[in-house]
From TrEMBL:
Pfam families: Acetyltransf_1. GO terms for molecular function: acyltransferase activity, transferring groups other than amino-acyl groups. CDD domains: NAT_SF. Keywords: Acyltransferase, Transferase. Coiled coil: none annotated. The keyword GTP-binding does not apply. Residues 5-157 form the N-acetyltransferase domain. This is Putative Acetyltransferase. PANTHER family: ACETYLTRANSFERASE (PTHR43420), N-ACETYLTRANSFERASE DOMAIN-CONTAINING PROTEIN (PTHR43420:SF47). SUPFAM superfamilies: Acyl-CoA N-acyltransferases (Nat). PROSITE patterns: GNAT.
Length: 170
């Protein structure tokens, strides 16, 4: 079965889904804590709300999108396109959609877009994030170490060679 990947703008009614995506990115980290479910939920909600406010303040003109796979909500992609760069603010998938090439497809699409515009693509990534390998495989390099995060950059003169041009429906 062919996988259909589409993006659509975030709507106010997506808040619960977006929280679920965020919580899914923190599962492993929180599994090591002895907190009960209510404590973890309270912490995650506080962190999610703080992150959301930060993103909205720092990147007011960004594209905040829900990733849909076969017409089902699967994740989020937040991208700020400005004159100097394409900044991936956040890309996250629900656990059940990871490891299927969806992130790779979306990233290749962004790299193709940036390559046509001759702009670099930048993203901050936690140093322990398994997706670091994916970014390196796609040609990103670490350009700054910011403690638990690294700033990675892809340069347009190194467009990864994919099997074919990637088209994402929006």
């Amino acid at each position: 079965m062919a996988v259909s990947i589409a993006l659509r703008p975030v709507q106010p009614e997506d808040a619960a889904f977006l929280y679920r995506v965020y919580a899914g990115t923190r599962e492993e980290e929180l599994s090591r804590l002895s907190w009960d479910a209510a404590q973890k939920d309270a912490f995650l909600r506080m962190q999610f709300d703080a992150q959301h406010r930060y993103y909205q303040k720092q990147f007011p003109d960004a594209a905040y999108q829900v990733i849909r796979v076969n017409d089902c909500p699967a994740g989020r992609l937040y991208v700020d396109r400005n004159p100097d760069e394409v900044r991936i603010i956040d890309i996250a998938l629900l656990p059940e959609y990871r490891g299927q090439g969806i992130g790779t497809t979306l990233l290749r699409s962004l790299l193709e877009e940036a390559g046509r515009a001759n702009k670099p693509v930048r993203i901050h990534v936690e140093q322990a994030n398994p997706a670091l390998r994916l970014y390196r495989r796609l040609g990103f390099a670490v350009v700054a170490d910011r403690g638990i995060y690294v700033l990675m950059e892809w340069s347009p003169d190194g467009i990864p060679e994919g099997e074919d041009q990637v088209k994402i429906a929006s």
